[in-house]
Amino acid sequence: MSETTAEVTPQVLVYGVPPSGAWGVDSDVDVWYTSSSHELVQALRRQVPQLLLCLHAPPKYDGIEAVRAVRRLDPGAPVVLATHHRDTMTNLQAAQSTVTWSVELSTDEPVSDGLFDVVTDASEWFESQTA
Asked: Which keywords describe this protein according to UniProt (predicted)?
């Protein structure tokens, strides 16, 4: 029996606000944005991406709760929490929900732009791994 190797397009699922004016990353990485925990769970039930990026910008985006929802479906999925709320409570909640990595967003720009910067960096990293 012969096997064929197909290239897998890296996928990033983002729970958070998409950037204004730019809905995608100019790369070979598939990026999807969801704006609710329900949409996030539905997307995960269809397919687990290579990276999940959860925005923590209360009250609209509760990234900690989003991470908990992800962990209930897939305890080993790589999840990055992006926030500019760097306080003890957020750090403890992130640790308890077993975030893979945490990224601090700049407070000098809108949350959507900071999140887009993280998505762009992740996409560039995935591209560098396949080059």
From this structure: Kinase, Transferase
